[in-house]
Amino acid sequence: MDETLRQLGELLLGSIPTIILLTLLYGLYSVIVHQPLRRVLAERRSKTEGAVEKSRADIAAAEARTAEYEQRLREARATLFRAHEARRKAALDARMAALNEARNKAQGQVQAAKAQIEKDREAAQGGLQAEAQTLAIEIMRRVLAPAGAAR
Questions:
Q1: What are the φ and ψ backbone dihedral angles of 149, each rounded to 5 degrees?
Q2: Is 149 helix (H, G, I), strand (E, B) or coil?
Q3: 3-state DSSP call for residue 146?
Q4: Residue 106, CA distances (Å) to 57, 83, 103, 115 in order
Q5: 60-89: per-residue pLDDT in tens?
Q6: Helix (H) or strand (E) segment spanning residue 1
Q7: How far apart are CA 125 and CA 132, in angstroms?
Q8: What's the pTM?
Q9: pLDDT tens readout for residues 114-147
Q10: Three-state secondary structure call for residue 77
Q11: HEC readout, 6-35
């Protein structure tokens, strides 16, 4: 057993430089590779999360602009509709005014024509009465005239 312990002691003594080198290698790995890698990964994660947050903010802003644009579009359409309605009403009013004016003018012409017809009727009636009187006088003269009298 002494031999085994001695061999075990030699092995442990021979492994000390390996243990020191392994510990040194682990320390160097931590300082040179592991810590910078962690720092880079943390930075990448923060940038990614920041980009995601920025994307969400950009999406929210875009949605707000879209809502504002749609609201302005609705307002513009309503304004156009009101203007179109006003033009249509103005056109209808102008049409009604022209129609009333034409109706009034036609009624005036009808009244003037009736008045002219009434004048013509009265003139014709007066002419007929005068002619009827002359015919009556002529008939009376012929009836009352002696039978053989020359004309």
A1: -75, 145
A2: coil
A3: coil
A4: 72, 34, 5, 14
A5: 999 999 999 999 999 999 999 999 999 999
A6: none
A7: 10
A8: 0.43
A9: 999 999 999 999 999 989 999 889 888 888 877 6
A10: helix
A11: HHHHHHHHHHHHHHHHHHHHHHHHHHHHHH
Measured CA to CA, the distance from residue 57 to residue 2 in angstroms comes to 76
Question: How many residues in the chain?
Answer: 151
Rounded to the nearest angstrom, the gap between the alpha carbon of residue 42 and the centroid of all alpha carbons in its chain is: 50
Q: Is 130 exposed, middle or buried (0-12, 13-18, 19+ CB in 10 A)?
A: exposed
DSSP-derived secondary structure for 84-142: HHHHHHHHHHHHHHHHHHHHHHHHHHHHHHHHHHHHHHHHHHHHHHHHHHHHHHHHHHH
Cβ atoms within 10 Å, residue 32: 10
Residues 43-68: pLDDT tens digits?
Answer: 888 888 888 888 999 999 999 999 99
